[in-house]
Amino acid sequence: xxxxxxxxxxxNAALTGDSPRALMSRDVLNTINDYDxxxxxxxxxxxxxxxxxxxxxxxxxxxxxxxKYEWVSSKExxxxxxxxxxxxxxxxxxxVVSYPEINAPSTMDxxxxxxxxxxxxxxxxxxxTPNAGSKLERLPDRQEWDIKYTDxxxxxxxxxxxxxxxxxxxxxxxxDLAHPANNRFSAGFTDEERAGFSELLxxxxxxxxxxxxxxxxxxxxxxAQRAKTSKINNSGWRIxxxxxxxxxxxxxxxxxxxxxxxxxxxxxxYMELDLDLI
Length: 278
Hints:
Layout: E1 2-7, H1 11-16, H2 20-34, E2 39-43, H3 54-63, E3 67-72, E4 85-90, E5 96-98, E6 114-118, E7 123-128, H4 139-157, E8 162-167, H5 191-202, E9 205-207, H6 208-213, E10 222-223, E11 240-245, E12 252-257, E13 265-266, E14 269-273
Parallel strand pairs: 1-2, 7-8
Antiparallel strand pairs: 1-14, 2-4, 3-4, 5-6, 6-7, 8-11, 9-11, 10-13, 12-14
């Protein structure tokens, strides 16, 4: 079974925009389509509370023929047009879909951050983890989120194995970003966020990229848009993940990045799983 996950940074812009960045985003969507994935998880859709428009749906189904989708958007009291997730899956599947709230701090439970799909043999849950903020103003809330989210995964894992994917907004180890020494106090690489991710993994989950590739360096999933040469220089971070329950790690066949061409920001990530080994 094949899976893709991508932080798109505005589904509307990617589908309907005409800027050079929008055109690059559509190129990435076409690249994703070529993978013929069974499930495609998309984060940071930035859609309104009412979800995708008719035009959005038409364009999506034109690109991804034979798929259905589920979505969740930010709603009051959270900011409008903020965060949001979507999952596309092939029509042959009939997963049970839920939109969990984890008793997270502030407005995080209203920001459209989690969708969970229950399949016959496993749960797939996707997440857009809150950013700690440029001045780390949201770091305490982020730490509490990490605890609540880990507890949610642990409870889910008691029922059946998990695939957890998305933008986790943390580079776990020094080898997960190009310039660790310069980013000790940057959002996504604070000691607190890294410790939170370590605790998640210790709770029974495997980082599939490291499981397959070991301590390989220089492979990233995000390059800052503000730095024009970040991707050319491969000055990136690995903050997007496919995690699985430890007991099904043996079923992981591939876990890798998808080439997103010249587009900076997030690249999609890809995983293959042998269902017969679950």
